[in-house]
Each structure stands twice: as structure tokens, then as C-alpha cells.
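dude i think i finally got it to work??
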Amino acid sequence: MSGELLILLAVTVAAAAFVQGASGLGYALIVAPVAGLVDPGLLPVFLLASMIPLNLYVAWRERSSLDLRGAGWITGARLAATPAGLLLLAVIPERDLGLFVGGATVLAALVSLAAPEFAPGRGAFVGAGLVTGITETATGVGGPPLALVYQHRPPSELRSTVAVCFLVGEIASLALLFATGRGQADHLGTVLWILPALAAGAALSRLVHQRLDARRLRLAVLVFALVSGLVLMLGI
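look at this
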């Protein structure tokens, strides 16, 4: 990867870490399309691995607001669905991964924009966990189902619970990917290069996460996801 592309990726990661640290979602929706354009081979390992320190930080920062019941149901379903995500990844040629990630990103953004307000229950938690387990293992993008479940809950509850669910799921997905030969160590090397940018974005989010207009930021993230997903699909 050239220095220019690495800088582009680092700037994108910093912005995405700020957005997710402040609002609880958006990292994968922002980074996945850009990473797919820079190097489709980075997905999903780079995306999953780079989210671990970010979600660990957010989960600790917001630990007092964690919804243990919801996190438990989501995590159980998510772990059960992880092998299905690996199977999906195995049948998608690498040359088509960008198209698939772009399509998944656009679909997730549209669903997030259109979803009505509702009070989540066990069925919603399990459904979100199953979908997340498949899509996050295959592409690294798994936030929209969780965001849909918690989008009408207090922001701190969304941030903490989504972060914990992501954290457990990312570790499980990476372990399975490497155990089956689908993970590559050089993608972890790329993660090391962008850690300073990730830390900077996460640290900045601490300054605003209690005051930010989460609804406007969420809308901006989803619009960006729509545009970048379309770009990735069309190969522009």
C-alpha cells in the first residue's frame, strides 16, 4: 500500500473512530467502503481488528449504562451465526467483495433510515444478533442491526451495549477467520499503522459525546454510507 493510500485510510479511521465514539455507530459504515476501495483484501480482517481497541475503550467509558439483558441475547445469537458469515465469505470471490460490501452498506443504511420507532424485546435482540453475526464476519459491517434495536434508547445505553456486543463478536469472528485460514497477518500490520489515528479520533469523541446531537450525526453517517457504498458498488 502506498503512503498516500495509508494516509487516506488513517484519516478515514480517525473520523470514523470519532463518530462511533460520539454516537455509538458508524465506524464500519465509514471505513468499510474506503478500505474496499483502497484494498479489498483488507476486508474483513482489518476492519474487525481495528474496531477491537475502539470498542474496548467505549465499553469501559460507558460501562455504567450497559444493558446486560440485551447484550446477552444479542451476543448469544451473534456467536451462533458466526459460522454462517464465514461460509458466505468463502463463496464470494475477492474480486466481488467490494460489490457485496457496497451493497450490504447501502441496504443497511436504507433500512436504518426507514425503520420506525419501537421498543426492543427478546425477538429483536436475537434477530439483530443473528444478522450481525453473518454480515460482520463476512464483511466487517455489523452495526446497523444493533443500531436499529437501540436507536430509540438513551445514547449512553446504545454506545455501551453496542460496543460490548461488537467486542465479543469481533474477537470470535477473527478467531474463526484465522483458524480456517481466511485471516492474514499482514492485515494486522496495517492495523498497527493506523492505531495513532484511531486513538486520536476516540480521544476527541470524549470531548463531545455527552453534548453531540446524535440524531443529526446518525443521519450524516447514513448519508455517507449510502454514497460511499454506491461508489464501491459502481467501482468509481
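The two ends are 19 Å apart (CA to CA).
im so relieved honestly
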